[in-house]
Design goal:
By secondary structure, the chain is of the alpha/beta class. The protein contains 5 helices and 3 strands. Strand 1, helix 1 and strand 2 form a beta-alpha-beta unit. It is globular, with a radius of gyration of 15 Å.
């Protein structure tokens, strides 16, 4: 198999890592020759979006998409790509769902960065 580690930029107060933790994790993955995976959504902003949805009385599954607009995936994808470039490590962005995030991945690849 392929050694890999998945980092969550989402899920504040649960699985979310800080940028510092992500950079350190990327550095360690580089040392180990492991692939860095990221679930890219801005966890702080999604948390705020969730509070707004809950405060509006929306508690069903429709609130999921409402609490996390595509721009938050785009921002986190771009941030992860830039940090991977800084560390010089390959990056696998899992669950790419928005056009903006896809464009960030495509742009990085066009510039020669190892991003999938």
């Amino acid at each position: 198999g392929i050694n890999s580690f998945k980092f969550f930029l989402a899920y504040k107060n649960a699985l979310m890592v800080t940028d510092e933790q992500l950079v350190k994790g990327m550095q360690r993955c580089k040392e180990l020759g492991a692939v860095v995976q990221v679930h890219a959504e801005n966890g702080d902003a999604v948390f705020e979006g969730q509070q707004k949805v809950f405060n509006a009385g929306i508690t069903g599954p429709e609130g999921h998409a409402m609490s996390r607009p595509a721009v938050l995936e785009t921002e986190a994808t771009a941030r992860a790509i830039r940090l991977a470039e800084f560390v010089n490590v390959p990056l696998y962005v899992v669950h790419v769902m928005s056009k903006g995030a896809m464009e960030e991945v495509a742009r990085a690849r066009q510039n020669g960065q190892r991003v999938i």
